[in-house]
Specification:
It contains 4 helices and 4 strands; from the N terminus they run βααβαβαβ. By secondary structure, the protein is an alpha+beta fold. Strands 3-1-2-4 form a 4-stranded mixed β-sheet. Helix 1 (20-31) crosses helix 2 (35-41). The radius of gyration is 35 Å and the shape is elongated.
Length: 161
């Protein structure tokens, strides 16, 4: 069984609230492209930015573009051409790495990623029987100081060699 293949398509749409000039700069930086090539992505036409990619690679491209502020779509290869409209290919963007596997979504900027759990509140130990000593006071009982024993070494001699 063959794996599904995808084209990553960009039609000039930006993520809500994204600054167009910042998105262009982010795309140029992310894909190491000059600004002229990035400007051709915003021609108003649907542009294929990655052709014939496996699902993991296509999803990685979509995630990188979303992080840059651009909304990209995945188009499964083999779909009816009438559903796709006209596409323009600007070039293939190359990225290193093996990509991600499985389905994932990129959270919007500032989203709370913590998983909410309905846990009971933490148990607070009873410390009412404890008290604090004033600053500078001794915290323990002093032990009786014993004088160290000195062994008797009067019977020992050092002879020259």
């Amino acid at each position: 069984m063959s794996e599904a293949r995808f084209n990553v398509v960009f039609s000039g749409q930006l993520v809500a609230g994204a600054d167009p000039s910042k998105v262009r700069a982010n795309l140029a930086n992310a894909f190491r492209m000059d600004i002229g090539k990035v400007e051709s992505l915003f021609s108003g036409k649907r542009v294929v930015v990655k052709k014939d990619a496996d699902q993991a690679t296509a999803m990685k491209f979509r995630a990188v573009m979303k992080q840059a502020g651009a909304h990209a779509e995945l188009e499964r290869l083999g779909e009816d051409a009438a559903n796709r409209g006209s596409l323009e290919t600007v070039g293939t963007i190359r990225m290193g790495g093996t990509g991600f596997s499985g389905e994932f979504e990129v959270a919007p900027t500032g989203a709370d990623l913590a998983i909410e759990r309905n846990l009971p509140p933490p148990v607070v130990p009873d410390v009412s029987h404890l008290n604090l000593a004033p600053a500078g006071s001794d915290m323990g009982e002093k032990k009786e100081q014993k004088t160290p024993l000195s062994p008797d070494i009067s019977h020992l001699k050092i002879e020259p060699l």
